[in-house]
Every structure is written in C-alpha cells, then in structure tokens.
Specification:
About 20% of the residues lie in helices and about 50% in strands. The protein is of the alpha+beta class.
Length: about 80
C-alpha cells in the first residue's frame, strides 16, 4: 500500500485479495482513494481476474503519481 501527498491533497493505492469459496478462485481488487487532506475523499475499487493485470495497474498508478510529483509518505511492502 502506498500513501502519497502533494500540496493539500492525498492519494492512496492499495490491494485486497479474497478467496471466493463458491468458485475456489481469488478475487483481486486494487483500491484507489484521493481527496483533500482532512476529508474522507473518494474511493474506487477495481476488480481483476489475475494478479498480473492487478500488479500492472497498481504499479502504473504509482508511477503516474510519482511522475506528477506526489511524495510517498508511507509504503507497506506487502503487495498481493
């Protein structure tokens, strides 16, 4: 999970993996949340069928933020 900030804004990129007991498959979600610091902001959840696509989206979003000069203020190194 990455936490970013820039000026008075924040952006969070995270991941969640669940086992679907009915199908036996994994449910993989990448969460993005953004807004002004001090607010709850807006959150979006994107579902993926495989880890490769989810990781690509996850790190693409991280690169977009660092390219826009967002500063990483926290990073938990447990991705998927």
């Amino acid at each position: 999970m990455y936490y970013f900030k820039k000026d008075n804004k924040f952006y969070i990129v995270g991941d969640e993996v669940f086992d679907d007991k009915e199908t036996g498959k994994e449910k993989i979600y990448v969460t993005t949340q953004w807004g002004k610091i001090g607010s709850n902001g807006t959150a979006r959840f994107k579902k993926f069928d495989n880890r490769t696509d989810a990781l690509y989206f996850y790190y693409k979003k991280v690169k977009e933020l660092t390219d826009k000069d967002y500063i990483s203020i926290y990073h938990k190194n447990e991705v998927f």
